[in-house]
Amino acid sequence: MPSNSSSLPARDAELLNSEHEGFVTFARNALASAILNFAAVVAVAAMLWRPDRVPLLAGWVAATAAYSLSMGLDIAAWRSRLYERSPWPMRIVHLRAPLLGLIWGALPWVAGATPDPRENIAIGLVITGMIASGMTRFVVVPRAALIYGVTLSATAILSFAQYSAGTALTAAILLVLYLTFMTRHVTAYGATLAEAVRGRNAAIESSRERSQLQQSALAERDETSRRHGELMEIVTAFRQSMAGFQDVVRRETCGIAASTASLSNTAETTASQAGAARNAAASATGEIDAIAASTGHLNDAIALIGERTYRAGTVISDTVSISATAMSDIAQLSGVMQGITGIVEMIQAIAGRTNLLALNATIEAARAGEAGRGFSVVAAEVKGLAAQTAEASNEIITRIGAIGASAANVTRSIEAIRQAVLDVHDVTHAIVSAVEEQRTATAAMSSNIDSAADHSRQATERVEQAYSAVGETKSEIEKARQAAEIMAEVAGSLTTSVEGFLHRMEAVNARERAA
């Protein structure tokens, strides 16, 4: 198995060197890789512990399928030629997409199937994501990859423990085997690279010795001519490289300038729209606050009306009770007057009989003559008293009749008043019910208006934040534009300096040849 690209065709060696350069570039971004690893751990934990993890699992499957398809097409396009000539860690990197599909289909059942298919999916995804992610990172940064693999392993084992102890043990064994396998091949790959470095150093030393022997054997003129030719080739190649570099810098600078100009215009438009939205939100918030204040006053007024209506209902209820008491008293008065009427009629009867007795006494006194004259006077006096008694009794009966008629009228009036008061009481009760319903509706409306006011204030704050963010974006765009201009100036200065240096080298070379 080769350890370097010396035995490869030129095209394959170039691709393999490009692969190694890509890994070196990725290793320089170890911090970003560590952040992504931590995000992957959090995502796996969330998928296993959240009750609604099925959508998350579906998203993970879609992302994994897209990644596998992309890498499979990449392998089919140009990497297949490098597979046979690559060391084992590189082969694993080349085959990570096919391995991903294989692991996805087999490992959920190897880890221990459960009755719930979602648990099988979760187990397979955790192991798949761990191995697929860990293989790339082991080749690039072994130390960071080891930490990453151990972290994901601990997360997976703790997650599997919530299903069953057997599943957790199986996952732990698989993970230990995986880490052992990867550690062994990474160690072998490191030894291969170290051997390649030692061979390269030995080749350099041997080439240096051969150069010394050739320098002692060749003539000074031929050696000088060769060096001058190589130097001119280097100058020409370097000039062409700098020309290409300047073109790239100029093109990219123009693109950045155009992008920043477009972004600046977009930021201006967004700032204008955000300002209008901020003003509209502030106006809406003020109007909603005014409506909320008016609703509060209306609620207070309705509460006051309800309180006073309730008091009026209480007074009306008391009036009904008093009317009933008055009617009862008048009924008792009618009974008393009827009793008085009976007594007066009895007195009238007694007065009539007394009058008859007086008449009989007068007749008997007239028969007695002179002897009955005194008795006749007494009889006349008794007769007068009986007549007065009868007259007084008639007057009493007349007065009692008038009182009875007045009492009947009063009873009818009180009954009419009581009926009217009952009608007013019913109306007042209806008013109280309506006021209570209105108070409830007004309270609900006031609550809704207060909620709308809160939402409006929150919207105003968010619009204000968006307006501030647009201002910061404009500032950052301006900084990017200035940086692009500075980069263009630096590239121009660098090109000028390099061109001057090359001209001086050509002049020195020409003088040496002339000498």
TrEMBL record:
Gene3D superfamilies: Methyl-accepting chemotaxis protein. GO terms for molecular function: transmembrane signaling receptor activity. GO terms for biological process: chemotaxis; signal transduction. Pfam families: MCPsignal. Its main location: membrane. PROSITE patterns: CHEMOTAXIS_TRANSDUC_2, T_SNARE. It is a multi-pass membrane protein. It is found in: Cell inner membrane. It comes from the Bacteria. PANTHER family: LYSOZYME-LIKE PROTEIN-RELATED, METHYL-ACCEPTING CHEMOTAXIS PROTEIN MCPB. Belongs to the methyl-accepting chemotaxis (MCP) protein family. This is Methyl-accepting chemotaxis protein. It comes from Bosea sp. NBC_00436. The lineage of its organism: Bacteria, Pseudomonadati, Pseudomonadota, Alphaproteobacteria, Hyphomicrobiales.
